[in-house]
Design brief:
Helices cover 54% and strands 15% of the residues. The chain is of the alpha+beta class. It folds into 5 domains: 4-61, Alpha-Beta Plaits; 67-205 and 296-369 and 655-714, no CATH class; 218-283, Calcium-transporting ATPase, cytoplasmic transduction domain A, CATH 2.70.150.10; 378-405 and 537-639, HAD superfamily/HAD-like (Rossmann fold, 3-Layer(aba) Sandwich), CATH 3.40.50.1000; 409-534, Calcium-transporting ATPase, cytoplasmic domain N (3-Layer(aba) Sandwich), CATH 3.40.1110. The strands form 5 sheets. Strands 10-22-21-20-11-18-19 form a 7-stranded mixed beta sheet, sandwiched between helices. A 6-stranded antiparallel beta sheet has the order 12-17-16-15-14-13, sandwiched between helices. The chain has a 4-stranded antiparallel beta sheet with strand order 3-9-4-7, with no helix packed on it. A hairpin with a 4-residue loop joins strand 1 and strand 2 (31-36). Helix 13 (339-352) packs parallel to helix 28 (692-711), helix 14 runs parallel beside helix 28 and helix 21 packs parallel to helix 26 (644-679). The longest helix is centred in the first third of the chain and has 39 residues, at 63-101.
């Protein structure tokens, strides 16, 4: 595709195909995303639809095969473009030198004709082929404009060369414009070459990620592999044995290597550094985290920002309007008696108009911006989310796993009575009861409790129940036990009952005052044990909150934890808006209340219990170490779970939208200014009429300026 009109043509053809419900076509990446019903149509039929519209589409094979085939096709086309540009430049320079640097000599016009012909019909063949293909299918694009302008310059020159008497008989000079025809081709080819190089640079991030993928999986899930120092991992898995530091910067954007030891997770594309690791393979090929990131980035880079819809409507009529204006220009000049100048002005109008800059203004910025985010470990699902992030003025954060490490540990425990395995072998060991119940939960607190009870027996549990936001329950040896917070205790027992060990009641108050999370084991008659758990703040949480507040963003914290533990974290981070004892549905309602107050809300969370609020928020941001449901629900994923990345996301959004606006301003301003000047509006006042060669250079530079401006987002 050559310009925004091509995009409109391809998009319109695909939207008109049976079974297609959604289409996004990107000029910057030359890709089409199509939502279709496989029961109604197939990729092969969609390919035929695109070919019938005058273009071509690669659909065969897997994503990797298609990417490889597309890259080979791009490289071949680029090499052919380089050769044509070089030849056109040399021949056009000769035409300019002979035509304007030498006095007339016999046969000079025919020499110029001979030199100009290969430039027009060989080097410029792509313009004629694409332009006439578009006309044959009832549309017009930038290639149509170039083909028309070059044809008019060339044919008018040939006519004047062969039939000069038509003009000389009227006392006029039969001018030749082979210089204009050849320089138009040369300048536009140079522009295309630079534009293609710049467009290719905008997709550097996705190609860098794809380069990390192994050519073939080194093992199958369930197998164990040895990863030597310096090797790049080709699978996702868990470390079984060994200790080493692993460079995960290509996934997380964090420069500091991560320590990996038994039980640690490792990912494809990362590099093992000094120690050898034995890894149990869990995911390979397209199932790895790296493959998922590549798919997400590719989809995001192909999506369209809301602002692009207006541009697409303008682009769809741009070329026909320019052709109409060029004909009107010729008519006005002809009526004033200046047919020759009218033809020159007509050619200049056709050449100088640039639908390319309009078509490239938004997608190149989106691709560069999303690629920049991916390189920093910020995965943005679509262009709309990137555009929206800059408007966020309230950020709601979950506590556990978002502000804190999400890896709580048991710091103290008290039992009633003191429970040891030697007390009475006939009695049920209550530590075993607690372990059996918590072992059946995947909550971070349950995992921490199980870690502190290693070696306990996993007793049979009947009627296990997760009580949302409060705890769990289950029947062990005929007794119904509960594990949870004080709210659950009050719900089941009404109050804290008297206990044999007075330290139980005392500890609850002391630990809560200290900001610990309190978990209790009890049945319907008494409290058997109380545990204090602590979850440390992330190193970056305080810095992240301060950075967002400095940008004028309101920070809110929601947690299902107790009020005192919530306040403890809020004071440490200087968060002024806090709500504790919040259930999952309450989080979504809280977000809704902020939206009702006129706030643009970003919700940041990591757990299943955050998914409703993530979906409700204007922008959902999931922590990469969180649950799959949270990540699937959110529009943005922070791979490293570093909250300072939210500040980077908002900055990136503001910069990207600023670049898009700069690009669109330049594209519209250029065309609004250039077309009237090309038509000759200044001629009656100043005698200035723009040369078609200069117009061709301006048009080429217009597209290059837009793409180069977008490339600033890579830094």
């Amino acid at each position: 595709m050559g310009c925004a009109a091509c995009v409109a043509r391809v998009e319109g053809a695909l939207k008109g195909a049976k079974g297609v419900s959604g289409v996004n076509v990107s000029l910057a990446s030359n890709t089409a995303q199509v939502d279709y019903d496989p029961a109604v149509t197939t990729p092969g039929e969609l390919q035929k639809t695109v070919r019938d519209a005058g273009y071509d589409l690669l659909v065969d094979g897997t994503d990797d095969e298609a990417d490889s085939e597309a890259e080979i096709a791009r490289q071949d086309a680029y090499k052919a473009l380089e050769k044509d540009t070089l030849l056109a430049g040399i021949l056009a320079a000769l035409v300019m030198l002979l035509g304007m640097g030498f006095r007339d000599f016999p046969g000079k016009g025919f020499v110029l004709w001979a030199l100009a012909t290969p430039v027009v019909f060989w080097c410029g063949r792509r313009f004629f082929k694409a332009g006439f293909s578009a006309l044959r299918h009832g549309s017009a694009n930038m290639d149509t404009l170039v083909a028309l302008s070059v044809s008019i310059s060339y044919l008018f020159s040939v006519f004047n060369l062969l039939f000069p008497q038509v003009w000389t008989s009227q006392g006029l000079e039969a001018h030749l414009y082979f210089e204009s025809a050849t320089m138009i081709v040369a300048f536009i080819l140079v522009g295309r070459l630079l534009e293609e190089r710049a467009k290719h640079s905008t997709t550097a991030a996705i190609r860098a990620l794809m380069g990390l993928q192994p050519k073939e999986a080194p093992a199958r899930p369930g197998e164990q592999i040895l990863v030597k120092p310096g090797e790049r991992l080709g699978v996702d898995g868990t470390v079984v044995d060994g200790t080493s530091y692993v460079d995960e910067s290509m996934l997380t954007g964090e420069p500091v290597p991560a320590l990996k030891q038994a039980g640690g997770k490792v990912y494809a594309g990362t590099i093992n550094q000094k120690g050898a690791l034995t890894v149990r393979v869990e995911k390979v090929g397209g199932d790895t985290l790296l493959s998922g990131i590549i798919r997400m980035v590719r989809d995001a880079q192909g999506s369209k920002a809301p602002i692009q819809k207006t541009v697409d409507r303008i682009a769809a009529v741009f070329v026909p309007v320019i052709i109409g204006l060029s004909l009107l220009t010729l008519l006005i000049w002809a009526l004033s008696g200046e047919v020759t100048l009218g033809l020159l002005a007509m050619v200049t109008v056709l050449v100088i108009a640039c639908p390319c800059s309009l078509g490239l203004a938004t997608p190149t910025a989106i691709i560069a911006g999303i690629g920049n985010g991916a390189s920093k470990g910020i995965l943005i699902k679509d262009a709309e989310s990137l555009q929206l992030a800059r408007k966020v003025d309230a950020v709601v954060m979950d506590k556990t796993g978002t502000l804190t490490e999400g890896k709580p540990s048991v710091v103290e425990s008290v039992w009633d009575p003191a429970v040891t395995t030697e007390d009475d072998p006939s009695e049920l060991n209550l530590r075993d009861v607690l372990y059996a119940l918590e072992h059946r939960s995947d909550h971070p607190l349950a995992i921490a409790v199980c870690e502190s009870l290693r070696g306990c027996e996993d007793l049979p549990v009947e009627g296990f129940e997760a009580i949302l936001g409060k705890g769990i329950a289950g029947t062990v040896a005929g007794t119904r036990y509960y594990v949870g917070n004080l709210e659950l205790l009050h719900e089941v027992l009404g109050s804290i009952p008297e206990v044999t060990n007075p330290m139980v009641a005392d500890s609850i108050g002391t630990w809560m005052d200290a900001g610990y999370t309190v978990t209790l084991l009890f049945d319907r008659s008494k409290v058997h044990g109380v545990l204090a758990l602590s979850d440390e703040l992330k190193d970056t949480s305080i810095q992240a909150v301060k950075a967002l507040q400095a940008q004028g963003i309101e920070i809110h914290m929601l947690t299902g934890d107790n009020e005192v533990a919530a306040r403890h974290i809020a004071i440490a981070t200087d968060i002024r808006h806090v709500k504790a004892h919040v259930l999952p549905q309450d989080k979504a309602e809280y977000v809704k209340s902020l939206q009702a107050a006129g706030k643009k809300v970003a919700m940041v969370g990591d757990g299943i219990n955050d998914s409703a609020a993530l979906a409700q928020a204007d922008l959902g941001i999931a922590m990469g170490q969180g649950s799959d449901i949270a990540i699937d629900t959110a529009q943005v994923t922070i791979v490293s779970s570093d909250l300072t990345k939210i500040r980077d996301l908002i900055r990136l959004s503001r910069r990207t939208v600023a670049v898009i606006r700069e690009n669109l301003f330049w594209a519209f301003f250029y065309n609004l200014l250039a077309v009237p000047v090309a038509a000759g509006v200044l001629y009656p006042f100043t005698g200035f009429l723009l040369n078609p060669m200069v117009a061709a250079a301006c048009m080429a530079l217009s597209s290059i300026c837009v793409v180069t401006n977008s490339l600033r987002l890579r830094k």
